[in-house]
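Team,

Forwarding the record for the chain on the shared tracking sheet. I've put the sequence and predicted structure together so nobody has to dig through attachments.
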Amino acid sequence: MDLILWRHADAGDSVVDPVADLKRKLTDRGRKQSERGARWLQARLPERYLVLSSPAVRATETAAALGARFKVDERLAPGSDVAHHLAAVNWPDGPEARVRHVIVVGHQPTLGRLASLLLAGSEADWSIKKSGIWWLSTRERGGQAQVVLRAAIAPDLI
């Protein structure tokens, strides 16, 4: 399974009210970031892939930049934990047997913690920049399942 973690693009400063925070939209800068990230992904994704998005508007707008259908999953909402993310993607098997590439559009600090758990074996506060993309792949070596980092791309490098 390939798991692609895509942090939502720039949506300005966070707000204290959780309901208002869910409604924050991408800034002009954020729209440009998400479009660049989408182009980078489109050039590398296979024909079949699944996009799962947080219900926050800034995440759904980022996911929409891909131009593909996506599913909103409440388990990916801001403040959710790593276990909810793993359940949403059915790690390591994937949510659908025919889909080997899953893109999760979500939030910090959970995406960074998820990356650290899968790559290093424990949760740590790893930073993923807004509109950053981390591409993880599973493989088997010597009968052991491994997770490898295929790419970690900051938005200013796209």
